[in-house]
Amino acid sequence: MNKKLLNTGVQDFILQNINTDIMSVLLKKPLFEDISQQELSQQIESKKKCKKKLPTWYKTPGIYYPKKINIEQTSSEIAAQYKSGIIAGKSLLDLTGGLGVDSYYFSKKIAAVFHCEINKNLQEITAHNFHMLGAKNIQTFAINGLDFIKNSKKNFDWLFLDPSRRNDSNGKVFQLSDCEPNILENLELLYSKSENILLKTSPLLDISIGLKELSGVKEIHVIAINNDVKELLWVMKKGFLGGIKIRTCNFTNSRVQNFDFELTEEKTAQPDFALPLSYLYEPNASVLKAGAFKCIGFKCNLKKLNPNTHLYTSSRLIDFPGRRFKLLKLVAYGKKNVKNLNLTKANITTRNFPESVDGIRKKFKIKEGGSSFLFFFKDMDNTSQVALCDKV
Predict the structure, then answer these.
(1) Is the pLDDT of residue 8 over 90?
(2) Are 130 and 110 in contact (CB under 8 A)?
(3) Contacts of residue 362, Cβ cutoff 8 Å, sequence gap at least 6
(4) Beta strand pairing call for 89-94 and 158-161
(5) What positions does the domain THUMP-like occupy (predicted)?
(6) Helix/strand/coil percent split, the chain, to 5
(7) Among 98, 290, 295, 353, which residue has the fewest nearby CB atoms (within 10 Å)?
(8) Does an H or E element contain 223, and which?
(9) Interacting residues of 317 by C-beta distance below 8 A, sequence separation 6+
């Protein structure tokens, strides 16, 4: 950590050149004493990366930015703030602290937060940033979180873990046993220090596999931002054997879409099926990741188009955690019928359909975009259909 980067003149230069081409900065002769152009470029690049993802860091004077990869791997402020709403108590230990975005938001709900980061340089950067952000109730340590907990005589109200999902060759992994630390090998140790664990895993992890491998799962939270699943959160309680709650949340630019259900509800739900009615509904990505294929139709009083077609329909428009469409025209799938729609541009979605979106575009010469929406799907009779819709 080169503290000379925090000098006023350097900070002014970083802010003034936030949109400057990085290569032009790198190729210049050193502009400041004891500061390389590589260090200067890193600060500019990393600060710019924070503008949307970490706006509080971006707007706070005196923030020291780590390497770009550390920012890419950290939670967004939206997701971190959501996580802070899950926990409550007096103490929390973040075993895999990183840049500390989650710890910062936990500190707004918890009296004492302990932040562990094995990378000494990143830990120093994070400690400095906590100071600049005014987070006075966070203690940060340059240590492996598991070593910290083994040597600590203290118990905590909560433990939080976000295991690294990169292997020795820097490739991405997502299975629990491939992440570091391996929570499956250390569950007994973790539960000896806290009855409550909040675990963040890759959104690629299969929920059914996680349920088989983890013990004490009480809730699963599926978090999406603009219909892109970002985080899978597991709320675990020592010895818990009750029903599991699934909570889905999709943050859009205009609203927050929530849908909650019990795991048993999905297993026992008996959907009603129908041919497309006046309106079609497409669940958001968090609902689909959660596997709420049957109970969402049941709980929203909608008909499903086919057991394997995750589209829903109704005669009257309702509020829905996903996209809503007005059905304009329904035709059986066929070359002549699709061409008769006279569309050269449309947004295309396939559900339970044998052809890909790219294949359909090439076949019918339909470009991407425009205001029309086409759904290619199998209906309740397993007939291939095409629905022309407007978004509501």
Answers:
(1) yes
(2) no
(3) none
(4) parallel
(5) 322-391
(6) 35, 30, 35
(7) 353
(8) strand 217-225
(9) 278, 279, 324, 326, 392
Which helix or strand (DSSP H or E) is residue 68 part of?
helix 68-73
First CA to last CA across the chain, in angstroms? Answer: 51
Instruction: Give the whole-angstrom CA distance, residue 172 versus residue 191.
Output: 27
What average pLDDT does range 291-302 have in this prediction?
A: 95
Half-sphere exposure of 118 (CA within 13 A, CB side): 11
Measured CA distances, 122 to 8, 66, 115, 142 (Å): 22, 7, 12, 9
List CB contacts of 33: < 8 A, sequence separation 6 or more: 4
pLDDT, average across residues 144-168? 88
172 pLDDT tier (thresholds 50, 70, 90):
low
pLDDT of residue 149: 94
- Which 3 state secondary structure label does DSSP give 184? helix
Closest CA to 286 of 227, 246, 234: 227
**What is the C-alpha separation between 373 and 69, in angstroms, rounded?**
37
Model confidence at 125: pLDDT above 70: yes
Helix (H, G, I), strand (E, B) or coil at 136: coil
